[in-house]
What does this fold into?
Amino acid sequence: MTPILSVRGLTKAYHGTPVLAGVDLDVSEHEVVVLIGASGSGKSTLLRCIDLLEEIDDGQILLDGRDISDPRIDADGARRAMGMVFQSFNLFPHLTALGNVALAPRVVHGTARRAAQDRGRELLARVGLADLADAYPDKLSGGQQQRVAIARALAYEPRLLLLDEITSALDPELVGEVLTLVGELAAGGATIVMATHEMAFARDVADTVCFLDGGRIVEAGTAAQVLTDPVEDRTRQFLRRFTAGR
Ligand SMILES: Nc1ncnc2c1ncn2[C@@H]1O[C@H](COP(=O)(O)OP(=O)(O)OP(=O)(O)O)[C@@H](O)[C@H]1O
Ligand SMILES: [Mg+2]
It folds into this structure.
């Protein structure tokens, strides 16, 4: 079966400094891949390259077998097949939760206002926020705002969700509700690539854990293998430092 996502030999440098140094990654349908690694190891850059927010220097990114890193393709169209969520929620403050979710389909797709609103309500219900459709972001908790951002990322029924440290800006007591939602999406069959420092979540939900170091995937395997019985010294060191720092 063709993987949904296939990253091959991806390299990327900023001002001559390599940040991704040959990344290969295959993601199958319904697979949950968690990226772990120290700050600066390249997790965000990898996710941004996959979402075509960065130009890559070399390699290929195939989505459903199609080379979306080919400059001749319609990048916006390809990006619509992916939903990306960032650490900062980036909601429009002057729009309600519903407005934020309904905006993308309405403006970009030209969906009729009524249909976009119905669709927006459906998406908000999916993230457990049906009752807060008319609330403005400043009246929502961080966890609720992030769930709105996730609903917005689901707007086009993406083939792939790219989640970059989506709980790192949240107060600790709000992390759970967002991770629970991601777990539900995963259980519902979503295909997810997610950078996170939430190791317990990775252990419980990830099919595959990739440890990045210096812009490479140094080790990849099942969550149980990589998190509890890593092969590589560098992975072991990272996990040791990580647990010590908690
Ligand atoms: N726009 C940019 N211009 C220059 N350098 C950048 C840029 N974005 C990232 N970098 C550099 O690329 C490297 C990888 O950064 P990246 O943000 O991908 O790491 P990360 O693994 O996501 O780290 P963190 O855990 O802190 O989020 C870092 O050295 C960073 O300084
Ligand atoms: Mg990052």
Remarks:
- Residues 49 and 95 are 29 Å apart (CA to CA).
- The chain has a mean pLDDT of 93.
- The two ends are 40 Å apart (CA to CA).
